[in-house]
Design a protein that fits this description.
The protein is α/β, with parallel strands linked by helices. It has a domain at about 40-80. The protein is built from 14 helices and 15 strands. The protein has a 15-stranded mixed beta sheet that branches. It is globular, with a radius of gyration of 27 Å. It starts with a helix and ends in a 5-residue tail after the last strand. It comes from Hyaloscypha hepaticicola. InterPro entries: F-box-like_dom_sf, F-box_dom, LRR_dom_sf. It holds the Pfam family F-box.
Amino acid sequence: MHIGIQTIKGLLTLRLRQRNCAQEPVKTNRPQPTSLLCTLPIELIEYIAAELDLVDLCLLRLACKNLSQKTLHYFGSTYFAYVLTDLSPISLQKLQQLSQHELIGHYVRTLLIKGPHGVGRGFSWERSPSQSLIFPHTGVQTLQDALLALENCRSFYIYNDRSSPRKLYDHGCLRPSDIVAIVLYIIAETSLPVRSFMADFFAFGETSVEINRLHLADYQKLEFKNGWSQLQNLFLRQSTMCLYSDWVQNLIAAAPNLRCLSLDFGSEWMNTFFDKAASWEKLPKLQELNISSVNFHNDSLFDVLFRFGDSLRILRLAHFSLDMTRTWKSTFKLLRAKLLALETISVFRLSEWIWIERNGLRKPCRETVTFPGFLGVPSVSGLEQSSPFWLDGWKVFDYLDHETCGGCFPGIPNHSRVLGQKYTKFIVTKDRSGPKKKEMVFGVSYSGANIGDVLDLLAESATPLFPRH
C-alpha cells in the first residue's frame, strides 16, 4: 500500500477544514464519523509521520487527539532525543521546563552543549585563583535539577560548529574545560549514571584541556566513580601535553563497562597513553576502538589492541603512521590473526616509512599508503558511490553508510567528516581528464561476514605512494 505525501496532506487539510467549519454538535445517539487516518494501525501512522516535515507533522498531531497519541512516540523520539543548550539562563530555563513535561521529557537521551556565540553567557562565573569555577552555582544547580528529572538523558556531547572567538572568553563565557568541569561536577555530586561522554576541544578552537580548570579531587569521590562506572562510550578530541595524560587515563580506568573508545589526541600523548595502558592488569572489554592522528613509535599500541582480540568488533584507524620496523602489509596480517571477533575495519590516510635513494644517499621517508587492489573490485558488498566533489584538484568519491554517522558520534546528524564516519571506499583522482588521469584508494571500510577476505586484500594491496622526484 503506497500513500503519497500529497494525499496525506490533502486528507489532513480536509480534516482541519471540517473541524474549523463544524457547527455546534447536534446531540444524537448515532456514532460520530471517524477520520480515515485514525482507523489506520499505529505502524502505518508512524510511517506516514516519518514522511512529513516538522510543520506538517505538527498539523497532523493537531488534527485530533487520536492522531496526537499515535504519533507521540515518533514525534518525541525524533525531535527530542537530542536537546541543545548553551548554558545561558534562558536556555537552562527551557531545559528545566522540558524536564517537567510529562509526555516529552523521557524521550531526551543526549544533551548537546554548544554555543557559537559563547557558552554560559548571561551568568556571573566566580573563579578560584587556579581559574577553576567555584561551585555551587545557580546555573549549575538548575542544570543538575533538570538532568535528574530527565531520567533517560545520560549522554553528553560538548562541541561547537565553528571555533568560538577567543574574545568571548573575556566577556564571561565558558571555556570548553569549564564545561567539562561542570558536567563532571554534577556526576560527582549526584552519581548520575552517564552512558556517553564526548568532548571535542578542536571544535572550540582549543588545542588542549586546561587541567587547572578541572576539579580533579572530585573525580576520586565514590559518588563520581559510581556514576562514571556506567560509562559505555568515551570520545575525546584534542591535542594535549603528556603532563595531562594521567587525567584521561584515570577516566578510562574508572570505566570498567566502557565499550567504545574514540581518541584523537596527537602522537606524543597517544604513545604515552598506550605505553601505560599496556601495563594495566585489567582492561575494559572494548567492542569498538577509533584512533586518529598517531605517529606510532613502539609496540605498546598493538600489545593493548590484541588484548581485545575476543571482544573488539569495530576498529577504525585514521591518519595513522607506523614506526620504521613495521609495514601495513604485515600489520593487516596480524590484525587478521589476532582480532578474532572483528566485524568492521575502517582505515583512512595510513602511512609507513620507506627507504629512498636520492643523490646517491639512502634515507628514510614517510609515505602515504594506497590500496590499488580495491580499484574496480565490486565483490566487496555494500559499495554505493555517492556524487563526487573536488578538493584541491583531487576528485573525491566518498562512499558513506548513511544509516549511522559512525561510532564516534552515534546518531548525531550532519556532523563534519571526522574519525567515526563509516567510509567504505575513498578514491581520489588527480587531474579531471586527459592521459594523466590516475585513481588511488586512500581509505577503505568494510563491515560484514567476509572481513577476513577484506583484511587479506588490504594486506596484499597496501602500497606506499612513492615521493615525486
